[in-house]
Amino acid sequence: MIQASATFYEPKIIRFPSLLERSGKLENPDEITLPVYYETVLLPDLKDDLSPRSLKEDRIALNHWVRHTNNPPLHFCGDPVNGNDLLNLLMSGMTAAGCRPPTVNKTWRELRSMFSAASEEGLCAHVPVLLKRRKGKRIRSRLIKESPKLQRQIVTEDELKRLWSACRFATYPRRQQFPTPRLWRVALVLFWTYGARTIDFLHNLRWEHVKFSDKLLQFTAQKTSKLQGLPLTEIAIAHLKSIKGHSERVFPGFNTPGCFLQKTQKWKRGFRATWNSEICPNASIDDPITLKHFRERVLTRYNAMHSGLGSWILGHYMPGVSAQNYDLPTDQIRELICSAPVPDCFQMVGI
């Protein structure tokens, strides 16, 4: 029986001994493990092409692999029986550590791509096979009932008005230059108008990305590493100026999403925890709304106005080679976005 090893490396820094000779070839192929193969062969080519988030996900997946298996050589993993035992160790170890089934699936997807590359190099005879996907309870129950996947209707203006009012209950982040409710309301304006990812707006957005003179919001999306240039509407400019202070970040203090702690049955403070535990409950909305639903609303609403517009705003639409870094908005795109109806609550600036 394979015994799991307790040794693993830091999630943000890979510290493996290099097996590269001066010629650039690997020594002792029979002793190469998956993390070493990733560092010495895959990482040099990937680090310039993948976003920091994708690289971090690779490292987290490798951490799980090292933590829950004995990290054997690749040739050992290529044996079908050994590979199955290793995957059982990985799955049971992650489950015992409190990882949800989707997390187990995602970890294996990252690892499988590494094993596939190693197999092509001849370092692993076969790619280990996960015989059964670890579906969550909600997914399983949906499959059993054979009912279609339920999707929420797009966020309505009435729901937006309730959320706007409920922002007064927000207590995170504290001790900032501007009142917490005002920060959240400006965030609502941006999510409603542009539907960007939370990491791009709440955490990464800097004032250097906000070009008032050009009426442009220009930033690099963390997930895709693509440059996006979004036209600023007059109402977005007014709200952004209402929170422009001494911080370099547009939303200072939004440092962590937070989470729900099962052990204590309490929320760990963060922007997503604040949204779920303070803003949404006080908005009295029957069908729960997540920040991602604003992204879906932008896609649906703007695509209905003009084919492909919503996809372009979200950074999905790539019409050709010239758009690999997302072209700046054309006059037509700017006009369409700036002419979209403005909810009444957005007229209340600086509250």
Question: In words, what does this structure look like?
Answer:
With 351 residues, the protein is mostly helical. The chain has two domains: 29-143, DNA polymerase, domain 1, CATH 1.10.150; 157-347, Intergrase catalytic core (hpI Integrase, Chain A, Orthogonal Bundle), CATH 1.10.443.10. It is built from 14 helices and five strands. It has helices spanning 34-46, 52-68, 74-77, 80-96, 101-120, 137-145, 157-166, 180-194, 198-203, 234-241, 271-283, 291-305, 309-313, 331-338; strands at residues 210-211, 216-220, 227-231, 259-261, 266-268. Strands 1-2-3 form a three-stranded antiparallel sheet. A hairpin with a 4-residue loop joins strand 1 and strand 2 (216-220). The radius of gyration is 24 Å and the shape is elongated. The protein starts with 33 loop residues before the first helix and ends in a 13-residue tail after the last helix. Residues 5-25, 136-149 and 319-326 have low confidence and may be disordered.
Q: Can you identify the CATH superfamily of the largest domain?
A: Intergrase catalytic core
Low-confidence stretches: 5-25, 136-149, 319-326
* Assigned CATH architecture of the largest domain: Orthogonal Bundle
Can you tell me the CATH class of the largest domain? Answer: Mainly Alpha
Mean pLDDT: 82
CATH topology of the largest domain: hpI Integrase, Chain A
The count of β-strands is 5
Overall domain count: 2
Number of contiguous helices:
14
Residue share in helix: 40-55%
Please describe the biggest sheet, giving its number of strands, its sense, and whether it closes into a barrel.
3 strands, antiparallel
- In whole angstroms, the N-to-C terminal distance is 63 Å
